[in-house]
Amino acid sequence: MTPEALSHYLHKLVEHKLMLSTMLWGPPGIGKSSIVAQTARNYNLELIDVRLSQLAPTDLRGLPVADNGIARWYPPEFLPREGRGILFLDELNLAPPAMQGIAQQLILDRRVGSYSVPEGWFIWAAGNRKEDRASVFDMPAPLANRFIHLAVEPHLDSFKAYALGQGIHEQILAFLSFRPALLHKLDPQQPAWPSPRSWMIANQLYKIGLDITPVIGAATAAEFAAFVSLYKQLPNVEAILHGRGENIPFPKEPSVRYATTIALTVRSNSVQESLHAFQWISDKASSEWIQLFATDLFRLARSRNELGKLATLAQHDPRLQKMFKDFIAMLESFNNGAA
Fold this sequence. Notes:
2 domains; 339 residues; alpha/beta; single chain; Rossmann fold
């Protein structure tokens, strides 16, 4: 499933209070932990992130302490004792078998030693797959059989929806639209390679003028630099946004077309500017580029809580109205399919 579909699935579990143990599978760097954290924030839940691979069995089970001739287990302080939240066991299958054995009791029975997980707490876990070249251990069959298993893959549209809301640099987003295969490209021979996580780190570096090679790798950084050089060929975006683009043609080079559509989306600072951009691209570009621009525009408007304003403007432009209806239908179809 896509990261967006995973988020919807986890939201449903929380909304319906299904306290079912859930395991998230996927390659490193695609945002599994971030989606869990976002879910916790959305529902005002406490989040306890436990990296089992960094613990010893006694760290989870607790220490035996003599009490009137009886050994009692004193549980660790990081386990929840009250309230509502998500106990997130990250890197579960990176933990050695002995550690997974202790975790199994916690996951299956919601208790370990003398400790019991409070009723208001979800137990979710995450791990990487063997094909991701991660140093993982096989999960015991009894443990695996008690999980809901959700496999998530990198997905450009899901990343764009998230990244637009986070204010990602337009040149990074345009490049990934042009080269979607480089959103996530694991290279086990190199310490740095592109992933949704590393692109968001690269975004922070790029915005202050630092080299992004150390986080996405030399080959990807070289392609990105070549793409950025094409920005000299961009049309006058500011004129288009201010409604003065009638004599400006749509670029012919595909990479510049991607850059232009993203620039028009990201640089629109008002709904009126978005409308001018939509009218220009509708007059100058073919249907696939109009669709690409409109989808990103609606995603950004959604993240800014401006869909209502766009809906009002759509009433005055039949083309925008149709695109808006298609976008809403797409959202409804996604929600129904993920439910």
